[in-house]
Structures are given as structure tokens and as C-alpha cells.
Design goal:
Structural class: alpha+beta
Order of helices and strands: EHEHH
Strand content: 5-15%
Shape: elongated
Radius of gyration: 29 Å
Amino acid sequence: MASDLRIDVAALDPPHRRALEEVIGHRLAENQRLTISVTEVESTPSDSSRPAQSLDDWAKVLDGLSVEDIDAIDQIVKTRANLTRDVP
């Protein structure tokens, strides 16, 4: 849905005129007409760079790693988990 709004500058009250002049970045003359257009743009998902993930994908996350690699990852995870706890 696209729509246009046309406003004669002379018809604007001072506060609205100042606000619109701030938006466009310069003073408006009495003989000008301000046209504001609203158009829809195609939205793009913000996380489009990430592939879809499923439970099967996560079940295979450690595939191909050695026991030593898995143990190292496990130690890191346990250390990070302890950083967020307030245990005396």
C-alpha cells in the first residue's frame, strides 16, 4: 500500500512547520508544497545468513571429534557454567 500526503507549507502551524523543517534539513518557503510518501518495502529476515537448524543437526555437532577434543569442550562448558552461578 502506497500513499502520499501533500501539505501546503503556508497551512502549517509554526510548531509543525519547524518539526518538518528539522526532518528535511532546511527552511520551507511559503510557496512550497511538502509531499510525504509512504511505501512498503520488502522486508528481509535479519537472521537470513543462518541456516535452518534441526535436532538432527545438533545431534551430530560432535561428530568427527576425538575423545580429547570432546573432553576439552566439556571442560570449557563446565567452566563457563560455573561463572554464572552465585554459589557460596
